[in-house]
Specification:
Blueprint: E1 9-11, E2 14-16, E3 20-22, H1 38-46, E4 53-58, H2 76-91, E5 96-100, E6 119-120, E7 129-132, E8 135-138, E9 143-144, H3 147-166, E10 171-176, H4 181-186, H5 201-204, H6 206-219, E11 224-228, H7 242-253, E12 260-264, H8 270-279, E13 283-287, H9 293-301, E14 307-310, H10 312-316, H11 320-326
Helix pairs in contact: 1-2, 3-6, 7-8
Length: 354
């Protein structure tokens, strides 16, 4: 395997000892009020040898919550809970950024603290069902955000970013992928607005650029990243203009000098990936889901990526970095314990030393 994977680098103002990072993964093990616990702290600290930990999606507001038992970062209680996590990771010599994720229409009133109708760019009901305390239920028709409410949501992200830094995080990642709120603004099937946030490509990327600008102004561009997933149909997203929209988005973001752009689930569209690489002036983080470490490391060697992220491998292997360095076998993740529960499938995966 190329030595490029083990070369130190700097992402914004965050120095990394190597380039194998941990991708964000929903784990649904916070309290019902969205507060991280000692169990969450143990989980992330176990994985502190990764170059950078990007946390699970964390709601910036009550409206932003999509699933049960996911963490928030908009109250003093949330800040105190996340401080347990960041302190544990830093004590283990790790680096951690909190991913800010607004689920938008991918939500249900039963899963939020205020039990209100989900919000979205447009009142378009997503296909499928979601888990709630009372079982599987259809996603409801969301309520369309007014133009003024879009601006208020930008401020929610700003405040959440400040709260993340107050909680000791090294930075934040804005979730603009996988069919959640920012992605819903990008896609024409979920964004049918006629105001300044709908219609043209420039209008549909406006919200994301405003969020990134607000967060960068609040905590510094060098501590701000953004994740995208061009063409990813997850959560009932349909995109037909990825080769127009995403280059326009990256061009609009480039002057902000964000710490990094994180590309995941790009559907194997390497033509678009190469285009975005050329347009992006700073660190590019890449997740090639479903491929092995050697394949991902080659992207670093070839100059396509500066840092790579792994998801399920990091989930099942707290000491993944040591295993990759030494060629040791990997644990197999248990799909039955990914979401919710306690230690099983969370903090009980064996390490080499164990």
């Amino acid at each position: 395997m190329s030595n490029a994977l083990w070369n130190p680098t700097t992402v914004g103002e965050i120095p990394l000892p190597h380039r194998l990072a941990m991708a964000p993964m929903t784990r649904s093990r916070s309290t019902p009020n969205g507060v991280p616990t000692e169990l969450n702290a143990e989980y992330y600290a176990q994985r502190a040898s990764h170059a950078l930990i990007i946390t699970e999606g964390t709601q910036p507001s009550a409206d932003g919550q999509g699933y049960m038992l996911t963490p928030g970062i908009y109250s003093e209680e949330h800040i105190a809970g996340w401080r347990k996590v960041t302190d544990a990771v830093h004590k283990a010599d790790g680096r951690i950024v909190i991913q800010l994720m607004h689920a938008g229409r991918m939500s249900h009133p039963d899963n939020t603290p205020h039990h209100r109708q989900p919000v979205a760019p447009s009142p378009v009901q997503p296909a499928g069902e979601t888990f709630t305390l009372s079982g599987l239920q259809e996603f409801p028709v969301p309520r369309e955000l007014s133009t003024e409410e879009v601006a208020a949501t930008v401020d929610d992200f700003r405040r959440a970013a400040a709260a993340a830094i107050a909680a000791g995080a090294d930075g934040v990642e804005i979730h603009g992928a996988n069919g959640y709120l920012l992605h819903q603004f990008f896609a024409a099937n979920t964004n049918q607005r006629t105001d300044r946030y709908g219609g043209s490509v420039d209008n549909r990327i406006r919200f994301a650029v405003e969020v990134a600008t607000a967060v960068a102004e609040e905590i510094g561009a060098s501590r701000t990243g953004l994740r995208i997933s061009p063409g990813n149909p997850f959560n009932d997203i349909a995109e037909s203009d990825t080769h127009d929209l995403y280059p326009a988005l990256v061009r609009a973001l480039a002057p902000l000098h964000l710490a990094y752009l994180h590309i995941g689930n790009h559907g194997g569209d390497d033509e678009l990936l190469h285009t975005l690489r050329k347009l992006w002036p700073n660190t590019l983080v890449l997740n090639r889901a479903g491929t092995d470490i050697a394949t991902r490391a080659k992207d670093i060697e070839d100059g396509i990526a500066d840092v790579i992220t792994v998801g399920t491998m990091a989930l099942a292997n707290p000491d993944l970095v040591e295993r990759v360095r030494t060629g040791a076998p990997l644990n197999t993740p248990d799909p039955n314990t990914v979401y919710g529960g306690g230690e099983a499938g969370y903090t009980d995966y064996p390490t080499l030393t164990a």
